[in-house]
Amino acid sequence: MPASESCYLGIDIGGSSIKAGIVTNDGRILQKRHASSALEDGLEAGLANLERISRELVVDAGITWDQVRAIGVAAPGTMDIPAGVVFHPFNLPGWKNLPLRDMVSQRFGKPAVLQNDANAAALGETWLGAGKNAGSLMFWTLGTGVGGGIVLDGKVWEGAHSHAAECGHIIIQEDGGPRSEFGIHGCVELYVGAKALVRRFREAIAAGRSSSLASDDASLTALAISQAAQSGDELSHDLILESAKYLAIGTVNVIHILNPEMVLVGGAMTFGQHTTELGRAFLEALRAEVKKRTFPITGERTVIDYASLGNEAGFIGAAACARIKYPV
Amino acid sequence: MPASESCYLGIDIGGSSIKAGIVTNDGRILQKRHASSALEDGLEAGLANLERISRELVVDAGITWDQVRAIGVAAPGTMDIPAGVVFHPFNLPGWKNLPLRDMVSQRFGKPAVLQNDANAAALGETWLGAGKNAGSLMFWTLGTGVGGGIVLDGKVWEGAHSHAAECGHIIIQEDGGPRSEFGIHGCVELYVGAKALVRRFREAIAAGRSSSLASDDASLTALAISQAAQSGDELSHDLILESAKYLAIGTVNVIHILNPEMVLVGGAMTFGQHTTELGRAFLEALRAEVKKRTFPITGERTVIDYASLGNEAGFIGAAACARIKYPV
């Protein structure tokens, strides 16, 4: 690439792993890496690890450090995005209100931005993924729990207090719905996502449903349930399609509030997406249940599909945030 | 006023009445009028009436027609806002897909914009009312039904298909909740608003509750229930505070999706707002129920209050829409 071309370093930091990459201003991924976060050895070790990986990425990408215009950092949990501060970072012992953005910026000698990881993933999908050029987009990330990100007019909508797109907490069944340890009842996350699927499986067995899976296995996982569903276990299959219904109700609420052009679904709990019968059935159920509950125009026109960048959406979106804030 | 100063004509058209006014570019209301829409005599009569009222307003405001920079028209129901087309206008017989914006523009010889009435009211409150200068705001309008408007970064968020802020349709009780004639279950509008209050009152009586109000009166109104609540009728008071709980759940969903700086509540079903015990109790219940169900930061920082422009918010917001699209 021309030595004058500017690039962005995107870093998606999780509790145990980081994904990072170098993305050019026009959206080519020059290098990427998935590595341990090394955070179990503390913050200093984690930052040193991050810097080493970043400098290696730059070398491997065949660019110079000077060509890195800015750094985007995505992290999980609640934060003050404009201030660049993570409230409860990575369960790091002793850390609260970590000024992660400025620490990265100082250490790397580059401008940096901080973003919530699901927000960043939504922007990544809008820049280079399934939501390319969508004017407005909501992104569901289905993992252990359920997260979300919203992009309006090409930018992450962060909300007034960096708390927008907490879509797993949308209440769909106030009365009689499942209760969380935090006292919130009947929200999407309590129906959808890996943890909820395991709980609902056990509840169904307790209510007399049968399954080829051993339900008394304390180590029962959502992965095992989704594999059983793909091997013909009726209960597992039913429960997963029921998840689609609950996700649809949350999606209807997003549509009735935001009316986005597109809703994307990503994360580990998407069952192989378009490549498996289960993934296709889940998406079809989601679309049908949304259509049932919304206005004819939004029911017909809202594009609902799987995200396409997998676990790279976060670092790509982090780079995209840096690119918006620090254009070339 | 200086003859050079530009003004905007804002018109809020309902099925039976219109509210209109002349607002200066810096937000002073020079003249306003509340009149019959004359739509019962058909579209031509309605437009002629509108033009007459508008020209009188200009004269009474002491400005010239040339000083009217542009016209904003707010109307109820679904529409294509960018195209300026109302889908099902005012129950006008024979009319569908009415190009209202262009008809007004041609008739008046001025640029015009169209906006949904609740969206316009939200913008009006942001410009001159209780939401003055809020960076982001959601506005509930509680009348016979429940509507909403969203303002982000000083502009109405219309959504991808002009269907944003249909907040009365937010689902809060999918299973076992009340059903509407359109097949949507358990949405906010079915719990909150005048129609829902009357239904819930009758249900409570049927379930054995007693009240000083005659429940077998076919003409029972929400106004009568709210008056009974203010005169010490326990059931009426309970039901109204319960409305606040349901409105809170809808509000929590708005917060978890958008995290607006402010949520305002307006419309006829606000019980005298800050001026009565019932109005104050309703607002306090709404705030408390929101706080219970959201994150500590949004629970503490989201400003929740009554709107302040009453039924003038619509024409003021319509003028504001014209001002944004056609600045001086």
Automatic annotation (TrEMBL), chains A, B:
Keywords: Kinase, Transferase. The keyword Transferase applies. This is Glucokinase. The keyword Cell inner membrane does not apply. Its EC number is 2.7.1.2. The lineage of its organism: Bacteria, Pseudomonadati, Planctomycetota, Planctomycetia, Planctomycetales. It comes from the Bacteria. InterPro entries: ATPase_NBD, ROK, ROK_cs. GO terms for molecular function: glucokinase activity. Belongs to the ROK (NagC/XylR) family.
